[in-house]
Amino acid sequence: MKTNIAILGSATTKFGEHWKLSLLDLAHLAADEALQDAELTTEDIDAVFVSNMLSGRLQHQDHLGAAVVAELGIKKPGLKVEGACASGGLAVHTAIQSLLAGTYETVLVIGVEKMTDFEASEISAALMGAGAEEERAAGLTFPGLYALMAKAHMQQYGTTREHMANVAVKNHYHASLNKKAQFPYEVSLEKVLASAKLTDPLTLLDSSPITDGAAALILRKVKQNSPKSNKKTVFITASSVAMDTLRLAERDSFAELAATQVAAKKAFAQAGIEHGDVAIMEVHDCFTIAEIMAMEDLGFCKKGEGGDYILSGETRLGGKRPVNTSGGLKACGHPVGATGVKQIVEIRDQLLGRGGEKQVKGAKVGLTQNVGGIGATVVVHILQL
Amino acid sequence: MNNVVSAWRKTKTLPAELGKKGRMLVWTRLFIAPKGYERDVPYVVAIVDFGEGDRQTLQVVDCDFDKLHIGQEVITTIRRIGTVDAADIINYGVKVKPL
Fold this sequence. Notes:
heterodimer
């Protein structure tokens, strides 16, 4: 059944290094801008859902729901939702359930992460909180885990380094048109291929960066028989979550995210649409190989053909179905708790025709895929004008 | 993060893990390490199949990276895990080496 949740307002901060802004400053900025966009005030908000992964470890703030509502001066329930890099999608999902249950009428979702105050080795260890104990003990990192999946994909389907590098080239091109992106410039295929190796086979330019940023949404359940507004409205018509094993070693295949397949299937059924209806997507390209797998696991091409599908240009701006017009996690940036919320902000902007230089003409249906860890959590949302 | 009780709990099961033979399914080499592993780079990590549904993600030591291949036979061994400060408890755990 369609969820019919209206997005009344949305905003993101600039993604990047915000030396002057704290975690709460970032949350406040995004929330204010989303409220303005919705022409609402804090008085109209019944509850706040905060998505974040690392505030406990990095900022020593383990009571983030309370911290954020106090910062905003909202005397209403404030909840933190955590699901590693899928925290954002999971918070939106949780907020939607509260609206469907009728508990709240209008809610604010804020995704926020503050990461650039720390050394890369500290962030790398912190992010491995999303992995399994055995993987941490082996000294694995997320570039390491995705490298294992990339190796499996190469072994099984003949995917090449060029296939992967091409994803970074495309997403940097999109980011070059996005003022809010961390890296608003293009990179060449040669540069990606020649950049420093983090692991075998993934390089620095295959990887999403360490980012500060926040994104916010204001959601409301549309009542039946309520008068139609003259304003163009984007609705979230599906919100689905699927899980997989925490340990990569336990899976049948290392070259796919089974949870993406399950979440996508559920989302398409919920919204009552088909793949052909989707005009635009934001997917979780934490590493280039992840976008290749996303195309396959979401069902937009056959398993193993993701690299060629992206190479065909269909998912580049100007193509039939652009993917990651924001620049994706790769080039727009990846403040982990904010990412899943930002994906929805980008799709809404596109559907409303306010995508700026990166506008996709006439898009009416969009999809987001947000991944926690190596796909132990996957959240898929479908948005419709 | 590291205390006597958790170190004891983790090492209790180590003897049973010793001398197990398995085959490498997929592997990678890391050049950038998380905190505590900086002194080990570069190091190799593999998913090893020990049969009967027992698959583990483990570091591969004493190996020539360029000679590793799918199905590479390995055996478990006990090694130090990461590096800790002088006053901390040294962690030991399972790694594998090629046979």
